[in-house]
Amino acid sequence: MFFESFLLNMAILAALIVALIFDYVTKFFSYWYIRHVPYKVAIPFFGSDYHRVLNFRSTSDEVKKFYNKYPKAKFVGAIKSRIPELIVKDPDVIKKMLSTDFANFHCRGIGLDKSRDVCLRNNLFYAEGEKWTLLREGLESLLNALDRELEDGLHVCLSGTNEVVNVQDLLSEILDAVFKDCLFEGKEDGFLITELRQSMQRRTFSDKFKSYLKEVFPSLFVLFRLETVPGLQNYKEKKLIENSNLFTIVRKIGLADQLNMKNKNTNDLNKISDLEMAYSMVILFITDGYIPCLNVLTSLLYELANNPHIQATLRDSNPDKSDYLDACIKEALRLYSPYAVITRMCEKAYQIPDNKIVLDKKITIKVPVESIHRDSKYYKDPQVFNPDRYLESKNEGHHTLTYLPFGAGPRRCIGEKLALKIMRKVTTAVLKKYKIETTGRTPQRLSMTDHNFMKIIKDEVWLKFTPLES
């Protein structure tokens, strides 16, 4: 005891504990100030993104606000909880970080490698280091083996469509058939794809809380052994996957064995069977393929209904020439990018090129994709749906890193080719059969909201589908 009074000793001890905690949570609050980077003032325990933590604004809205507040700045500083983040606005620096200097920024810094959730633990999006390399090579082989034509199921799903329909419901029915055919060669009766997709689209309070922990405090997500994706529930689901072409390919590739070999010195928690590996791939296709495709296609049909002249041009285009369709898809991806932000973690001290700013190890960077896509510096009338901006004769000469719906560099989305193929096929099938128009139930604008690490359309979209004369 320092003093004879017990209460005085306890008061001093409490004050020391409070001071230590305060020092810990505010240690990096002056990080951007001393580097002369414009930043938002942080508060203890919340950092500078307290509006997002308290659910006043989403992550992407908060980043967008930072981006717009300092229009001339190349960088904007923020504090996530207590760790500094740098919002990078300059396309040249973005290119350096995501491509040229990828070795410094190959990691997302989410840290879910020891998660109880086997699908997260072996998800390419979260993987790092050698595991990321193995998963990417395995997924490339899987995508090549699953390359199939997608025509047959589309027309069946569209055959009964008439008058005003909920676009998300219609497209979900189509994409259920597409992914069932792609992953299970049509042998699946639709229940697994549909149930998994519906469970991932639901947003209960528990789901939102787990998603928040996964994004902001991944160590707690791992510590409490939380899961965001249900495991294989019953014998029927297991047999369905075991009898699928997907399972055969996964076993042939030997990806599970390679991952187990890599983890041979760890406990059994990180072991994975061929069945679990195949199931993880199904989840990956739904979370990072199905759901983004659903939202981009919904936004594309919405814009075509609101721009009948573009729809007419698209329908009347030469069938052998897909340039205009690709331009429309590209414009939908620009305006309604599935990912509003790309996050990376600095692996070692890094000096930003042509700049005095030095980032310390484990500092995270954010690339504000949505804000860049809607910046008038790079796109004329950025809020307007205008596919002509991507036609070669009218190309605006954009910097390559001002268009990032699939990311950039070695971690660029591996499913880009398949996603574009699906969107082309679905859009073509719809436009061949229907004229699409707005109705009194059609929203005036599409509202987007954050869903895990991506953006989804918040409200139902209703459009009128009128069959074309044969």
Short description:
The chain is of the alpha+beta class and 470 residues long.
Layout: helices, strands, pairs:
Elements: H1 6-25, H2 50-53, H3 59-69, E1 75-80, E2 83-88, H4 91-100, H5 118-121, H6 129-145, H7 151-158, E3 163-166, H8 167-184, H9 191-201, H10 205-216, H11 218-223, H12 235-242, H13 245-253, H14 255-262, H15 274-306, H16 308-316, H17 323-335, E4 342-345, E5 350-351, E6 358-359, E7 364-367, H18 369-373, H19 416-433, E8 434-438, E9 448-451, E10 454-457, E11 462-467
Helix pairs in contact: 6-13, 6-14, 7-8, 7-19, 8-15, 9-15, 13-15, 15-17, 15-19
Protein architecture, described:
By secondary structure, this protein is α+β, with helices and mostly antiparallel strands. Helix content is 48%, strand content 10%. It has helices at residues 6-25, 50-53, 59-69, 91-100, 118-121, 129-145, 151-158, 167-184, 191-201, 205-216, 218-223, 235-242, 245-253, 255-262, 274-306, 308-316, 323-335, 369-373, 416-433; strands at residues 75-80, 83-88, 163-166, 342-345, 350-351, 358-359, 364-367, 434-438, 448-451, 454-457, 462-467. Strands 1-2-7-4 form a 4-stranded mixed β-sheet. Strands 3-11-8 form a 3-stranded antiparallel β-sheet. Strands 5-6 form a two-stranded antiparallel sheet. Helix 6 (129-145) packs across helix 13 (245-253), helix 7 runs antiparallel to helix 8 and helix 15 crosses helix 17. The protein is globular, with a radius of gyration of 24 Å. The chain starts with 5 loop residues before the first helix and ends with a strand.
